[in-house]
Amino acid sequence: MWTSWTHRNHVIFKGLKLDVSSLFDACIQRLSWWCTAKWPEAGISINDVINCPVNFMQFGNSLEQIIKSTWCPPALGELKFNTDGAVRGAFGEGGIGGCLRNEKEQCLIMFSKSAGRVDPMSAEILAIKEAVKLFKKSYWSRNYKLIIETDSELAVQWMKYPHQCPTPFKALIADCLDSCKGVNWHISFANRDCNVLADNLAKKRDK
Known about the structure:
- InterPro entries: RNase_H-like_dom_plant, RNaseH-like_sf, RNaseH_domain, RNaseH_sf.
- Residues 82-204 form the RNase H type-1 domain.
- By secondary structure, the protein is α/β, with parallel strands linked by helices.
- It folds into two domains: 2-67, no CATH class; 78-203, Nucleotidyltransferase, domain 5 (2-Layer Sandwich), CATH 3.30.420.10.
- Helix content is 46%, strand content 21%.
- It is built from nine helices and five strands, in the order αααααβββαβααβα.
- It has helices spanning 2-14, 20-38, 46-51, 54-57, 62-67, 120-137, 153-160, 167-179, 196-203, and strands at 78-87, 92-101, 107-118, 145-150, 185-189.
- Strands 3-2-1-4-5 form a five-stranded mixed β-sheet, sandwiched between helices.
- β1 and β2 (92-101) form a beta hairpin.
- α6 (120-137) packs parallel to α8 (167-179).
- The longest helix is centred in the N-terminal third of the chain and has 19 residues, at 20-38.
């Protein structure tokens, strides 16, 4: 609103020509600043808003409820590892991150590391592989079932049905599944708003 008002004053009182495109860009930029300031824990980046502003405009006040939707803890006898991968663009420097938590929501293991130059899907798979590797080395692998949660539906699908995996990713999925041998595990999809911590950990290393 303030951006529109300021632009209107410049047109009326300073004789500037109305530039709808510039006005829209300025509004989106202010919206992105506002979203990242209001919900810093949500892992929303300015680029997220600029690239697809409608995702944030349509939520209105309900966005806060979506962000606060609770992460669902695992059952007794299970531990949950949320993982995520982040890459700048279609191929570039990537990061992976994850956090293992128990039914009391206590963080037992956390990682945030570079994935090198990768594509987004490879980063997602590498994050899962790293989580399994760390879990296998831990004390908890002897007594707990591992629940892996990722916000990549394709990663879940390929881990469950490797024959559906496209050729470029077959070797990586096979390597990831090989890492899971000897572990009582299950993988499931989690909405991004329930995977915020892993997302933030991954984005710390995609630079």
